[in-house]
Write a structure and sequence with these properties.
about 200 residues, alpha/beta, seven-stranded mixed sheet, 7 strands, globular
Length: about 200
């Protein structure tokens, strides 16, 4: 999925979406129990490093080798290199841990409309019973703003769409939020965000 595009972007400037984790990830991960987290479409690793610093074992996945190299380096620099495993792979092809994950973080993981639902179903399949998906991305009102995100309206999220895609999860949170992003050069300014937390049923 646009591997060359992301290799170029991550090669031009380090920290294109900042080096600090998403505040929503920080907030929601602190409520999670378990030890194994998955971050597909993880880019340069800002959220993976935070999870490892909190004691989680993390599988970080991205199609960009450049992004994953940065993730590995940032993890080592933070003293948590042994807790973060990096995988250069298309998220749809990644199998993941055989026993599943306690938490899957989807941050600005916008997909073309024809594969979005497939990807979200894949994300659900990665969960252990009782595991959580924590999602943050741009909602459909972002199209008129200039703070980042796809310029294709079909790649932006809305509540009804996510409720359908993640049918089967118990929704703990689903809301649209207007906020101001300050996450590197590509996420700057007023933004329209959607945030979701869903839990897989216990067996």
């Amino acid at each position: 999925m646009m591997k060359g595009h992301w290799d170029i972007r991550y090669s031009e400037t380090e920290g294109v979406y900042g080096k600090l984790p998403s505040p929503f990830w920080v907030q929601e991960l602190s409520k999670c129990s378990g030890h194994l987290a998955l971050l597909p479409c993880e880019g340069e690793g800002r959220n993976a490093v935070l999870a490892a610093q909190k004691g989680w074992n993390v599988d970080a996945v991205d199609s960009s080798a450049v992004g994953m190299a940065t993730c590995a380096r940032w993890s080592k620099e933070a003293g948590v290199g042994k807790l973060v495993k990096t995988y250069v792979a298309d998220a749809l092809d990644f199998e993941g841990a055989s026993d599943g994950y306690d938490v899957v973080g989807l941050f600005y993981a916008h997909m073309p409309n024809d594969i979005r639902q497939l990807f979200h179903r894949k994300a659900m399949s990665w969960l252990k019973p009782g595991g959580k998906i924590i999602l943050e991305g741009f909602n459909s009102r972002q199209l008129t703003l200039h703070s980042g995100g796809p310029k294709d309206a079909t790649m932006l999220f809305n509540i009804a769409q996510l409720e359908s895609d993640f049918q089967g999860l118990v929704m703990e949170q689903m809301e649209t939020v207007q906020t101001t992003l300050d996450e590197g050069p590509f996420h700057q300014g007023k933004a329209e965000i959607i945030r979701m937390v869903g839990t897989a049923p216990q067996l």
